[in-house]
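User: Some background: our group keeps a shared notebook of sequences we're curious about, and every so often someone picks one and asks for a predicted structure to add to the entry. Today it's my turn. The entry only has the sequence so far, pasted here. Could you supply the structure so I can complete it?
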Amino acid sequence: MKKIRLIEVKSELGAGTRGASLGVDALKIACLNKGSDYFKKFTAVEVPNLNDVMFEKNLFPHAKYIDSILQTYKRISNTVEQTLELGMFPLVLAGDHSNAGGTLAGIKATYPDKTLGVIWVDAHADIHSPYTTPSGNMHGMPLAVSLGEDNLDCKVNDPSPETIFFWESLKRVGTETPKLKHEHIVYIVTRSYEKPEVYLFDKYNIKNFTYPEVIAKGVEQVAQEALHRLRDCDIIYISFDVDSLDSKFSKGTGTPVEVGLNVAQAKELCHQLVSSPKVICFEMVEINPTLDAENIMAQNAFDILEYTTEAIQSRLAQEANAAPIA
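Assistant: Of course. Here's the predicted structure to add to the notebook entry:
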């Protein structure tokens, strides 16, 4: 049977608030407090990070620490690619959401000829470029990197030639060409975005299942519709940012937003999504225990992680049983 491999990525170079590098350890503390043996069940690999560069002056105001993020992307991509080539299921536990660009690169490097779909469960759209970003924080850019999307129609910044060099290099990690197409992204409960991002939503008819839609349809139907929208994709990657949760449940994240999922809804949503045989990678990001004295965010996130992992294991077992004996 195919095994799950945990990939720990403690990089937080892309975040605006410090502390996401501690998210994986906060999950482990929540695991211990719950009396779970989760982190003993699976092999794990940690991707080396470059967080120490944050003690130095940032040289790229429109794409902060992009030079070090490029190196981090390459490391993540190589680890994800190796995991998939070993026949394992990569379950990525990462710091800030910029790291997802490295995960996507690794998936596409492994399967260059397969059509990749993405389900992005997140309060934010993360489809800015250095030309449109209001903050320069690269956790708002992973999808734009993966799409090769500059969105020059909405340009507000003039990035330096060095920034553009690294931005173009980021796009080529894993594969020389874009990792996915705009129409193969589905957002769920995204509710905080800027005009350049809305422009892309409208231009490419990108679907966002809003929270009112989730309430009206129910989590199970939304999950099925999201998967159906990606029916032409061969493989699917799911990225779960904990700020998809309502800010009541997600104080321990850098950018909490009101009117989002509760923990039970998030558990059921992720459970339904990963039950699809097309899903080959799941990622959880943006837990920041420095913003959360009680570690409530990590406890909630760990409950979601444990429940989601059980669904992945169940599916992998069914697939192993259904496979013809060679």
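Suggested note for the entry: The mean pLDDT is 97. The chain is about 40% helix and 15% strand.
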